[in-house]
Design goal:
mainly alpha, 7 helices
């Protein structure tokens, strides 16, 4: 997210403010289940709702902090922008293929995972078309 905003602030013609905002929205949507994955086991092990929620929320705090650091280091970031974006995309694909896809097919209700991935893809495509 920070890389995208840094590219926009540097005047990169290939990055529009709306595209950076769309990316931020997509990441925010992705952070909801990420926070739940942190919070739910804590609650099940006896943590209070407030503490579980706080830890789930804090798990997503690293992204805006990293984004702000990236924007502050704009002169360093812009020349390597394509490599950073490629690395981020590759890291996400690795996590999906290595961790999520195999887990999705375990158990009797594997179709729920497939439907979830499909709905997530549809939401991101709708955001892309509507906002960009």
């Amino acid at each position: 997210m920070g890389v995208c905003f840094a590219g926009f602030l540097a005047g990169n013609a290939g990055i529009a403010l709306l595209e950076a905002i769309i990316l931020a929205i997509g990441i925010a949507i992705q952070n909801i289940p990420e926070g739940a994955i942190i919070s739910m086991p804590l609650k099940m092990q006896g943590a209070s709702k407030k503490k579980a929620f706080l830890y789930g929320m804090l798990s997503g705090l690293v992204e805006p902090i990293a984004a702000m650091i990236t924007v502050l280091l704009i002169n360093i970031v812009v020349p390597i922008l394509p490599y950073l974006l490629a690395f981020a995309a590759g890291a996400m694909l690795f996590v999906v293929v290595e961790e999520l896809v195999p887990e999705m097919h375990e158990g009797k209700k594997s179709m729920i995972g497939v439907i979830g991935v499909t709905l997530g893809f549809v939401v991101m495509m709708v955001l892309d078309v509507m906002l960009g």
